[in-house]
Every structure is written in C-alpha cells, then in structure tokens.
Amino acid sequence: YGRWLKTDFTTVRRTPEFTFELSTNSIGLRGPEIPATHDGSVVFLGDSFTMGYGVSDGEEYPQRFGSLLRERRPDAEIPVVNFSNADSGNGNWLRSLRNSAAGFHRILIVMQIYENDFDDNQREGIFALAPTDRLLERPTTGPSSLRRFQRLVELMPLISDSYTFCLFRQALMPLRAMTRQTAVPTVSSSGGVPDQDRLTLRILEEALIRCRELDAPVVAVLVLDSDRRRTSVQTLIEKYGALVLHVPSKAERPDLYFERDVHWTASGHDWVARQIVEAVDGMELMDPSSNDAGAVAERPGRRRVEAA
User: Fold this and answer.
1) Is the distance from CB of 81 to CB of 34 less than 8 angstroms?
2) Is 199 exposed, middle or buried (0-12, 13-18, 19+ CB in 10 A)?
3) Crossing angle for the helix pair 195-213 and 91-98, to the nearest 10 degrees
4) Spatial contact of 92 and 56, defined as CB atoms under 8 Å apart
5) Coil, strand or helix: which one is 87?
6) For each successive 10 residues of the chain (308 residues), what is the average pLDDT?
7) Rounded Cα–Cα distance for residues 93 and 85 (Å)
8) What is the pTM of this model?
C-alpha cells in the first residue's frame, strides 16, 4: 500500500492550535474493528482530511457519517471502513480496492480528493504513466532509513518513551521539504496539462473503473481550490455516474477550518458528514442481513451537489 498507520495504536497529538486523540484498529485503520460481515459497508478513501487529522476519535467525518446514518436508520447495521491515510495520494486507493475491499459486497464508496493529491501521487511513485497514458504500477519499496531508525528506537527501553525519534525527524524536516520541492516537476508536458495532473486523473479513472467492477456507487468529496482541476476532476467523475460534493474553501467557509491549520475542525467534519448523508439519502443502504442482494444502493447517476 505504500504508507500505512500503526496497528492497535492510540496517541494524543498536541499542536499549538489543537489537541486530539487518534486510535487505530488491528489492521492499521482509524476507527473500530471491521466487522466479520463486510456486506453493506461504506468505504472511505482519502488523505488527512478523511483520516481526521486535528479531531479526536469519533469526530472524523466517516464516523460522524455512520452515527448520523444510524440515527436515521436505527434498524440498519451499516459498517464504516476508513481506508484513508495522511500525507498520501490516491495510488493506494487502487491497491485497497483491489485487495482489502475486494471481499466487500454491496458497498458505497466515498472518495475525498484534495489539492495536494496531484503532487503526492508523483512524489509517492506508486504508479507512473507510460507514453500511451497507461498506468504502470511500481513495486513497493521497503521501509525508509528513517522508519528503520524509528523501529530501532522503539525497541529500546526508556528511549522508546522519549522524544528521540520526534526530535530527529523534526531536524530532518527542512531537508525533506527541499527534496519534495525538487522531486515534483510543475512543467506542463502533454497538451499543456501538467504531468501530475495527467497521472492523478488516470489513477482516479482506474479507481472509478474498479468501483464499477465492484458494482459500488461512488460519492466524490472534492476539496479543490483550482478551477481547472475542479472542472477536470468533476468531468471525469460524472463520466462514471458518480455523485460529486464540493466542499467550500477556507476563504468561503472559514468556520469549517482551523484558524491556522488547513484541516477541518470537528464542526467542519460534522458539516461534511451531514452533506454526504443528505446526498445519499435517496440511496437504499440496506442492513447486510437483508436477503435482497441488490438492494444496497441505487446508482445516483450524474448528480452534483453544490454545498453552500
């Protein structure tokens, strides 16, 4: 998958602006354990917004969505599975859809797309583009030197509970930032479209094709400031009959965001969750115990939600 969260882990993250608690389950996903029966699940794909950076367990919008849905349909058991990871692009989506989500049936998939996904996809290098725009999957490399050092520190008594690794990582951040800037070209290559945009659109298209193969309807949550990118992503998503939800920018709705950080507050997550619940209200998300194998969702078709 590339990068993943620690398994069975709980931590409290403190920043100058906020403090939050984050827990993972036995397979390294934020949220409770995945139930044995996957039928009728709602699967979330995204980055730090969907993982819920900045808000405590239960406040991230996938879990808020599940809570709101249970309030509306108390008799339905609809598991929520959060496959998102902070500081990542969309390449791991394809691997999640192909592997982890392959055994799920009658599901709804929510894809959250953010402006920095375009650069992240090129930086991560999980996929590359052939000259014919065909996706080439690259093998996953082992842990970086930094992560191997982390594992070593965590094996040492007392040292593992110190800030040794954090301080070391902090010292390397300027170098890491410089590497990222030089590693991501912004020069247009084909028809005036930047390389990272072409790559991201192809990854998204393959993800949408995989969702169609799973017969899973899709809701796309777009957090895009660029008009050009918003238009190109929306056109692609609507081509595959998915529902599109636009989240206002920080300039448009500052009340949804932290004052300094770019992420959503707990109120912002609640707002996004409510928009998704309203958007899928016409879908028939059924109890997994239902005998109606085709009743989970009615395809939304080419619908668009302009969230004010």
Assistant:
1) yes
2) buried
3) 20
4) no
5) coil
6) 83 94 94 80 94 97 94 84 91 86 80 95 91 87 81 85 82 73 53 88 96 92 94 95 95 96 97 94 53 39 46
7) 10
8) 0.86
